[in-house]
Amino acid sequence: MTTLLAAANLSKRFAGLIAVNQVSFEVAAGEIFAVIGPNGAGKTTLFAMIAGALTPDEGTVTFAGARIDGLTSDAVCRRGIARTFQIVRPFPALSVEDNVMIGALLRRADMRSARAHARAILEMLDLADKRAATASSLTLPDRKRLEVARALATDPKLLLLDEVMAGLRPTETDRMVAILRKLNRDTGMTILLIEHVMRAVMALASRVLVLHHGAAIAHGAPKDVVRDPAVIASYLGAEAVG
Amino acid sequence: MIELWRIAPPRGRIVIALALAVLLALPLAADRYVISVLTLIFYFAYVGQAWNLMMGYAGQLSLGHALYVGVGGYVAALMWLKLGIGPWLGVFAAVAAAAAFGAAIGWLGFRFGIAGVYFALLTIAFAEFTRIGFDHLELTGGAAGLFLPFEEKRIGEWWNLRGGQLLFYYLGLALAAGAALLVALMARSRLGYQWRAVREDETAARALGIDAFAVKMAAVVISSGMTAVGGVFYAFYYNNLFPSQVFEISRSIELILAPIVGGLGTVFGPVIGAFVLTPLGEGLTAVTGRFGINAPGVKAVFYGVVLIVIISAMPSGVWPRLAALFGLKDHAR
Ligand SMILES: Nc1ncnc2c1ncn2[C@@H]1O[C@H](COP(=O)(O)OP(=O)(O)OP(=O)(O)O)[C@@H](O)[C@H]1O
Ligand SMILES: [Mg+2]
Q1: Complex ipTM
Q2: pLDDT tens for each residue of A74-84
Q3: Mind listing the pLDDT tens digit for each residue in B62-74?
Q4: Which end of chain A, N or C, is less packed with Cβ atoms under 10 Å?
Q5: Residues 6 or more apart from B15 whose CB is under 8 A from it?
Q6: Option in B200, B208, B210 nearest A92 (CB)
Q7: Distance from CA of A102 to the nearest CA of B (A)
Q8: Domain parsing of chain B, residue ranges
Q9: In terms of CATH, what superfamily is A3-80+156-241?
Q10: Interface residue B7 vs chain A (CB under 8 A)
């Protein structure tokens, strides 16, 4: 398998606090890879460095064979990495469809095909009946779906999902898991997700990276990682395994 | 364009066609005063549209658009006076000069992250510096102003904008209608959607691959260039230019009121706003004149009060309210 994304020794400091500390990992093309860890572990910061929203203090990010650390976030997206925001950022005054169409316009010059693409994606994420609604009128679970739809519309090679299941009900979580799995299977899209909902992680990820206080404390197959004593102690708690 | 007409609601088409027909035929019936007020309305609808493109669609607040009016007017007037080059050619130089100013301001602001009110301050500063510069520029007559002379032999040279009131009436109408059409087309283009994305949330827009810098530069360059055409109109209509009048901050404010009152980020907002505000201003002038009230600022205070009332009653503008009331949805929004 070829490596699509490689992070090497990534570090980020915020005024004395080391948010991400010498983290290295690789994501293979076509894989679903999860990053887990307690609140404040540095997961979102790690994502932000990959997506070009933050510049790493140390380390490198390599995507499809080329260095991308130091690129701006729009340049990173044009290379083929799309991200969602943990704290959702829809275009509030625009319709759901227009939100997604703006993503679709990245690789489509004419409006008609961009709109058609947006509609297909809204269909896939069960948002089709809300396409005319203003984004600001959506409920939180729908806003999470909109984040995914908009990122997907840019036709990424790598999709970064930051806690898109948070706030979803169990049935909605299962639905999202099914959508992501189908997407991964049908299009071969590589997915890197941050998730607290372990049920989703176990169902989707082929490999998991565990962060704690900015450092990687475990790395491997989900079933092995959840049995790791360090992971249980710092994150899952003893009862979560059983 | 045909596409725009096709998607317009039937009632909207009727209203637009009727309004255009009435405005085209009006000079047959109306007196000079009405014609002059309408010409002014067209002017404000035009420059308001140019400003609306940058603020209403791209979300970049400029409080110095008088700069582009002034630069446009001065460049075309100078070319006419010093080189004998008529405004139909001069307008290209005027647009280029104003767009260069716009590009410089945009580059400074957007490259160095000067955003929101700080960007607005930058636009004011540029307009003020330019005003001071023109006050001392001999070429343009400095503070004493620049005059386009009345020449008997040139009367009727419409191609040099040396015509009467009707010429400017129809030119103003064409400009206002053309600008509305242009903005409607751009609003539906890829760039138009990218503007709205940047306006709504620049960080999210960039995460979708939008080059926010380029998109904002496009907005300021197009907006300033468009505004300069209004400046050429102004210069040849009034036949005089004074730095203290054209570059004044109050001129910049005056030109943004129509889109704000009419509805930001809508195609018809600046038009409706100009139709509401200009007669109001003119009416106040007439009334205060009639009653001999010439205490300074009385007109401004009245005007301000009316603005407050309209804006607090219709915070998103008169046009969205009208459109909802009469079922004329602004598709080009
Ligand atoms: N811009 C910032 N400035 C200063 N500190 C920050 C900034 N962003 C994050 N931090 C700090 O860095 C640490 C890591 O934050 P981060 O958001 O990456 O954690 P996380 O793993 O995503 O947490 P959560 O599960 O709550 O989303 C936290 O202590 C946070 O307070
Ligand atoms: Mg986070």
Answers
A1: 0.93
A2: 999 999 999 99
A3: 999 999 999 999 9
A4: C
A5: B326, B328
A6: B200
A7: 6
A8: 2-249
A9: P-loop containing nucleotide triphosphate hydrolases (3.40.50.300)
A10: no
